Amino acid sequence: MKEIDKDNLPKHLAIIMDGNGRWAKKQGMLRAFGHENGTKSVKVTVENCAKLGIEFLTLYAFSTENWNRPKMEVETLMKLLIGALKKELKTLQDNNIRLNAIGNIDSLPNSVKKELQEVILKTENNTRMTLTLALSYGARDEIINAVKNISEKVKNNIISTDAIDESIINQHLYTHNMPDVDLVIRTSGEHRISNFLLWQIAYAEFYFTEVLWPDFNEEELNKALISYQKRERRFGKTSEQIR
Ligand code: FPP
């Protein structure tokens, strides 16, 4: 396989981890088994991204819409999350990875919040890669939240309406300290964005694969990155201007 060019990596990679349920069903197992195995792919992918030199990795772990799943499945996902946070703090420290979370974090169970806050605090000075978990995350929710906060500042004369620009919007999103997304990967053959980082993907490249998330490994990540590196990102300009 072609080598990855370390000088042309996406600075911000975002992944929609999809297909855990189908992966489990294919083997006659319960959906929880798929999520458990999906957690293994999370670990491998986080380590590989850090090793390669990707600076920002954002994983769609739980959407605002996922609250509508059966109560048992939601509980399983929360338990897996707590377990992974407890178990992988050492991996994050060993790899110099900072943990961050975006979404309506207040809506998560206290047990998750506690573990999350602890790992975020303990890894806050790590510098190699920022791993962001999107939890109880919805892009529309994020935008509504930003509009409310900006409106409040306009009302209190902190910001003037004329001053509202892209930078002001960026500063009020959950992702205020992160660059725009360069590459979105979605597994499991679905070709949709499902309310993920709608503002931040304005100029992102997309890579869709049939592979189900629990089967996503180093080779699949490399395929996605090589595909990204073949693309010409024009940001609205012509090819000639880019070259
Ligand atoms: C999508 O598969 C996956 C999720 C909704 C959750 C992703 C969660 C994990 C990988 C495990 C825990 C996460 C961390 C960060 C440790 P699906 O259930 O929608 O699959 P399906 O479309 O085949 O039903």
TrEMBL record:
It comes from the Bacteria. Homodimer. It comes from Flavobacterium urocaniciphilum. This is Isoprenyl transferase. Its EC number is 2.5.1.-. Catalyzes the condensation of isopentenyl diphosphate (IPP) with allylic pyrophosphates generating different type of terpenoids. InterPro entries: UPP_synth-like, UPP_synth-like_CS, UPP_synth-like_sf. Pfam families: Prenyltransf (PF01255). The active site is at 18, 66 (proton acceptor). Belongs to the UPP synthase family. Its cofactor is Mg(2+). Binds 2 magnesium ions per subunit. GO terms for molecular function: ditrans,polycis-polyprenyl diphosphate synthase [(2E,6E)-farnesyl diphosphate specific] activity; magnesium ion binding. Substrate binds at residues 19-23, 31, 35, 63-65, 67, 69, 186, 192-194.
